[in-house]
Design a protein that fits this description.
Glutamine Phosphoribosylpyrophosphate, subunit 1, domain 1; Rossmann fold; seven-stranded antiparallel beta sheet; binds fructose -6-phosphate
Length: 600
């Protein structure tokens, strides 16, 4: 949600800034802008729309500056426009600010500053930051002015700030991600590692409440009270190849096809034939209840996790939308384990829900993809997915790897509590990458079927048991990238209302593989067929009964019920992708969305 990139070094900053923004564009693409430090003044260039628009503008200028900051925006306060694009300047145009997050008290601050004579040019919350620094610079140096400003802000921020005449970038973090890349006589500041990786693997992660002063040769991190913080330099594990499209038309398609490998990576070193190895600093015997908090696709993997933990460990589980959880004074005990599931590890609602559970005494665990992300550093213990960077806005490989990690965790708790483990699950788990590959081999068939759906205005996705969250995820994928209105339902709920929607124009996708709900699903398919709905069924090879009821089928290999979501979601991801692509939509950057939702 908004991407920040900054450079200070010896190279021309502009191409590096534009390139950095391109890497971060998945975080928002409403507008983009850069600000360069020129001798004693700032040069700002902004454009509405994608980073490409900005690139076209900067191409026409000769810009020798070697220090600059930049931003790609996902609008929160103020419409997407050039006026609201970052960087935002003060009245004298001496201070420039780029910001990811929300300044919650900006209205009060703005009123105050306006009374003092400051003129605002945008509708954003961010602009108060540059004017506050301007105000405090009257009696303080740049650094002190930033510290004084930060003390007045409420909300969340990743900030990068330039001041004319000062050869440095000051950055600050609270609630939004910020990483510093350390090169040879050059420094790179970014919202996430994907923009830094091609320059250096040496990085520093910042904690909430920290401010860092960066120059060409080094950096100094301070707390709000001015105390210096010693930071550790860490090594990024990803390589550059992982953040390129590797011949695929879109990142989403590449990431769908990466799933056999991604799941193998989640499993690597964590299972033998009869043991699960996780380094978790939690006593399994002390856990009496699990509460999972997550958003979107990660929430749906939590719903599957509920089935898994109840079945494998016989533990009670609650799954909560992170955005709802924290506002209803939830009852939490010391024997609760709160699990935050998040691909990015930066989702503001998930982080806040986790902190609420922690504050009330729960032990915490993260199931996270992005190493070093905020949530991964807040939890007592964690399981990294090792799925590699997920760049496509629609989450795919993170979902299947999250389920894989949840299976591992459930087996681990079973093993630690009962000194035994269900070896059949382990055996089947090891076969999953190959089974996913078998589904991927049918991509051309799914592409052809997408033609039957692409002109529909609505679609229903139905499943039962383990397949119900898969139906929810299939519907979410379709609606978010193809803009077709889609709903996921437990199949048996149809007759309590939604079946009224079904007619010959309604495609209905059934997950009808041969699990313990198969007979029931067949009845639900009959109900739809009787009302002329068009059925696409996901079935196991050799299926006859569901296939006879369906207009179209896609086969997924048989596995045990509790692993079936990992395999059955693959054709639904492909379907959403091919429908959206056939409609000519920019699949990796669907309208109104951003990858990492760092606002509440
Ligand atoms: C959907 C999607 C979102 C995310 C949600 C949570 O395709 O990507 O629904 O799943 O925003 O994000 P993370 O997992 O990063 O917390």
């Amino acid at each position: 949600m908004c991407g920040i990139f900054g450079y200070i070094g010896f190279q021309k900053a502009t191409p590096l800034l534009v390139n950095g923004l391109r890497k971060l564009e998945y975080r928002g693409y409403d507008s983009a802008g850069i600000c360069l430090l020129e001798p004693n003044k700032l040069k700002t260039i902004k454009a509405k729309g994608r980073v490409g628009e900005l690139a076209r503008k900067v191409d026409n200028e000769i810009l020798p500056a070697t220090i600059g900051i930049s931003h790609t925006r996902w609008a929160t306060h103020g419409e997407p426009s050039e006026r609201n694009a970052h960087p935002h300047l003060d009245c004298q145009e001496k201070i420039a600010v780029v910001h990811n997050g929300i300044i919650e008290n900006y209205q009060a601050l703005k009123k105050l500053l306006e009374k003092e004579g400051h003129c605002f040019l945008s509708d954003t919350d961010t602009e108060v930051v540059s004017h506050l620094i301007e105000k405090f610079c009257l009696n303080n140096n740049f650094e002190e002015a930033v510290l004084k400003t930060l003390a007045l802000l409420e909300g969340a921020w990743g900030l990068a700030i330039l001041k004319a005449g000062e050869n440095k970038i000051i950055a600050a973090k609270k609630g939004s991600p910020l990483i510093l890349g350390i090169g040879n006589n050059e420094m790179f500041l970014a919202s996430d590692a994907s923009a830094i990786l091609e320059h250096t693997k040496k990085v520093v992660y910042f904690n909430d409440g920290e401010m860092v002063v960066i120059d060409q040769k080094g950096f100094l991190t301070k707390m709000a009270n001015g105390d210096i913080v010693k930071k550790e330099i860490q090594e990024l594990k990803w390589d550059v190849g992982q953040i390129e499209k590797a011949g695929f038309k879109h990142f989403m398609l590449k990431e769908i096809f990466e799933q056999p490998q991604a799941i193998a990576n989640t499993l690597r070193g964590r299972i033998t034939d009869n043991e699960v190895k996780l380094s978790i600093d939690i006593d399994p015997a002390s856990i009496k209840r699990i509460i999972m908090v997550a958003c979107g696709t990660s929430f749906y993997s939590g719903l599957i996790g509920k089935h898994l933990f109840e079945k494998i460990c016989r533990l009670p589980v609650e799954v909560e939308y992170a955005s709802e959880f924290r506002y209803r004074d939830p009852i939490i005990n010391n024997n609760d384990l709160a699990i935050a599931i998040s691909q990015s590890g930066e989702t503001a609602d998930t982080l806040a829900a986790l902190n609420e559970a922690k504050r009330k005494g729960a032990k915490t665990l993260g199931i996270i993809n992005v190493v070093g992300s905020t949530i991964s550093r807040e939890v007592d213990s964690g399981i990294y997915l090792h799925a590699g960077p997920e760049i496509g806005v629609a989450s795919t490989k993170a979902f299947t790897c999250q389920i894989t990690a949840l299976v591992l965790l459930a087996l681990y708790l079973q093993q630690e509590k009962n000194a035994q483990i269900d070896k059949n699950i382990i055996k089947e788990l090891k076969l999953i990458p190959e089974k996913i590959q078998q589904v991927l081999n049918q991509a051309e068939l799914v592409k052809a079927l997408a033609n039957f759906i692409k002109n529909s205005s609505n679609a229903l996705f139905l499943g039962r048991g383990f397949s119900y969250p898969v139906a929810l995820e299939g519907a979410l994928k379709l609606k978010e990238i193809s803009y077709i209105h889609a709903e996921g339902y437990p199949a048996a709920e149809m007759k309590h209302g939604p079946i009224a929607l079904v007619d010959e124009n309604m495609p209905v996708v059934f997950i009808a593989t041969n699990d313990q709900t198969y007979e029931k699903i067949l009845s639900n398919m009959q109900e739809i067929k009787a009302r002329n709905g068009k059925i696409l069924a996901i079935v196991n090879p050799g299926d006859i009964r569901a296939s006879q009821l369906a207009n179209w089928t896609i086969e997924t290999p048989k596995t045990i019920d509790l692993l079936s979501p990992i395999v059955n979601v693959i054709p639904l991801q492909l379907l959403a992708y091919y429908v959206a692509d056939a409609k000519g939509i920019d699949v990796d950057k669907p309208r109104n969305l951003a990858k990492s939702v760092t606002v509440e």
